[in-house]
Inverse folding.
């Protein structure tokens, strides 16, 4: 049982090592195969990644460049939803058959 677990762990590590990973201490990207150790400088990696993304019609952006506009859109939407929910007059004066206004004295 333990041997099977160790084998699966070894296979998972092998699979993980077959993809480039950032080494903060070495300031390089690296990977391993059965035949070689691959080491790629940060500058070279970024140049090749940029070209790769560009060839697929994708502009390289940081997480913040992608998420800040989305967070701003979400904030604006939330504010609008809160204003909509606070506007009870629209419901009190509505003739929509899906809106039912029940006077408090009839509760």
């Amino acid at each position: 049982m333990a041997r099977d677990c160790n084998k699966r762990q070894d296979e998972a590590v092998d699979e993980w090592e077959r993809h480039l990973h950032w080494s903060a201490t070495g300031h390089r990207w690296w990977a391993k195969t059965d035949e070689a150790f691959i080491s790629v400088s940060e500058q070279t990696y970024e140049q090749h990644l940029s070209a790769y993304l560009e060839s697929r019609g994708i502009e390289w952006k940081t997480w913040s460049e992608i998420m800040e506009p989305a967070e701003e859109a979400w904030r604006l939407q939330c504010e609008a939803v809160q204003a909509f929910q606070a506007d009870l007059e629209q419901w009190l004066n509505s003739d929509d058959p899906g809106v039912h206004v029940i006077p408090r004295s009839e509760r």
User: Anything to note?
Assistant: The radius of gyration is 28 Å. The chain is about 55% helix and 10% strand.
